[in-house]
Prior knowledge:
CATH superfamily of the largest domain: Vaccinia Virus protein VP39
Radius of gyration: 21 Å
Number of helices: 13
Structural class: alpha/beta
Number of domains: 2
Strand order of the largest sheet: 3-2-1-4-5-7-6
CATH topology of the largest domain: Rossmann fold
CATH architecture of the largest domain: 3-Layer(aba) Sandwich
Strand content: 5-15%
Shape: globular
Amino acid sequence: xxxTFHHLPVLLTESLEHLNLHPGAVVVDGTLGGGGHASAILxxxxxxxxxxxLDLDEEALAxxxxxxxxxxxxxxxxxxxxxxxxDAVRAAGHESVDAVLLDLGVSSHQLDASRRGFRFATDDGxxxxxxxxxxxxxxxxSAAELLARASAEELQSWFQNYGELPGxxxxxxxxxxxxxxxxxxxxxxxxxxxxEARVGRGxxxxxATLVFQALRIAVNDELGALEEGLExxxxxxxxxxxxxxxxxxxxxxxxxxxxxxxxxxxxxxxPELPVCVCGRKPRLQILTRRPLRPVxxxxxxxxxxxxxxxxxxxxxxxxx
Length: 320
């Protein structure tokens, strides 16, 4: 399994530096993938550091478990979303942790495994099902099922808000027209409709990239999971603990930036109030004034890293 699951860890050096690791540290890798980050973390926290690795993809969990088997009880694999990382930490016997890493997005393996439906290569699109679920056994509707039953308004909202796609309304209308004739079951079906709707023409990148991104986010409720995951991560960090988040598009990065700023500010009362009534205290100190980006050498080695943005923060003691 490990030989077939490949995923280069993005911004690895920068992640390790900002996690501020030490021997014996307890770390949550909320997006385990192939275990690249986790392996490096286990090396840095030897001889007795612990990594709790979460992933919704059982193929990723199996591959990482095989890769990290030599670390024994220092590594614990959990089939779960990072939105529930607090439960995973407590189930592992810990009340708090020293660091949390969230490497968002889709792994190279998931993109390259055509049966998952994350990609839109035309060579095998007629046989590639529109699935896009991180956990195919979750019981959640697939992309094909969402396309079959979502209203034109819902579709437009996804393409516009999650993909920032010009012509979102036109594409939504075209999908609802086409599905009356036959369901959209494969990536080839969707690619044909995108082309016929004539959306995103003249853009540098294939407009299908934005459409597939939007559908994947909708299928997996990725932005909702991120909101909850960030809250859970801050909750479990002990004072001095670090949070590192790597995002891959502006929607994710905006949520991360706003959450870190809110946690660093604390009070959410309107400015016109003379005294604070919400009672919220600052819980984080932001460490990255601007997000870190991959250097040219890393992008050359791994082109999919080109859009990565890393932000980090440190948990502080809440004022009395």
